[in-house]
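I hope you will forgive my troubling you with a question about protein structure. Here, with my thanks, is the record as I have it:
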Amino acid sequence: MEQREASGDVVMTRIGQAIMLLHAGDREEARNRFGDLWSEIGEHGDALHRCTLAHYMADTQDDPGDELAWDLRALTAAEGLSEGAAREPSGEHPDASAVRAFIPSLHLNLAADYLKLQRFEAARLHLDRAWDAAGTLGRDDYGGSVRAAIGRMEQRLRGGPGGL
């Protein structure tokens, strides 16, 4: 168990390093590092790692379709973690609360992806899911910034066809 925790810390550290590159503006190097990590952990690796990595890998994509694919991977990993919680003796996976905080942002990103692709109904569906999940957010800076971003996306979608 201790070895898994130690290796998990290493993976999250490496993900964090790639996130810092992304935030510093080096999208290409971040994308390369995320790609290497994804190759290592794979489609069936730790759900928190897959969710976090895919969530940020989406932000490195130039093509809206590729961005959507990565955001869908992140949501799939998050949902898999929720399903896995039922198998835990306590009823909750140890990483469930960390991933739960991602859910509103994941749906918000999907709404933005679908909007870029002019798939307005899908964008509305995910924006509604972001609003529904926003209740899990804390009253901290992160929660406030995600709620504000959901509100901005609401305004953008209202400007779309038929006020979607």
